From TrEMBL:
GO molecular function, one term: diguanylate cyclase activity
Protein name per the record: GGDEF domain-containing protein
PROSITE patterns: GGDEF
Residue intervals of the GGDEF domain: 11-141
Keywords, ordered alphabetically: Nucleotidyltransferase, Transferase
Length: 161
């Protein structure tokens, strides 16, 4: 992912961070083999729905999608992903996995902006989770909101040290 950063600088981009809601439940209840199957199935669906975009596994059960498309086109595929996620065939599950996400879009003028865009998308992910999960929260890039999000992330890192 870091090798791809340069291509986003100076471009208008959409950035979404999403993760599997209550993924620990699936691992704890069904085991890590089924957890891995869920991760693989969702990863394949993301790559299918967003074939021309960059899809990365961003953490344990988090994914990052970067796109050069315009926001309405990106939003159409976000909605399509949410619909198709309900149809993924996972054996022996008592409930289907869902995802929450946050995304933002705007001009990425440089490396600092890219970090701010990531921070704001992450902030919107947490808003989606706080609103009940299984949803995507999005807003256009706002430098002031991004600064606040970066500050919040810095505080979380300081507290965990």
């Amino acid at each position: 992912m870091r090798e791809d950063f340069e291509q986003y600088l100076g471009q208008t981009i959409c950035v979404m961070i999403c993760d599997i809601d209550r993924f620990k439940f699936f691992n704890d209840t069904y085991g890590h083999v089924l957890g891995d199957d869920i991760l693989s199935g969702i990863s394949r669906l993301l790559r299918h729905i967003f074939p021309d975009d960059c899809v990365y596994r961003y953490g344990g059960d988090e994914f990052l999608i970067l796109s050069f498309r315009n926001q309405p086109s990106f939003q159409d595929d976000v909605e399509r992903f949410q619909r198709h996620l309900k149809d993924l065939p996972f054996d022996d599950l008592t409930r289907q996995p869902t995802m929450s996400g946050g995304y933002t879009w705007g001009l990425c003028q440089g490396a600092v902006d890219l970090r701010k865009i990531f921070a704001l998308a992450d902030h919107f992910l947490y808003q989606a989770k706080e609103a009940g999960r299984n949803r995507i929260h999005c807003e256009p890039f706002d430098d002031q909101k991004a600064e606040i999000s970066l500050h919040e992330i810095g505080n979380l890192i300081d507290k965990s040290s």
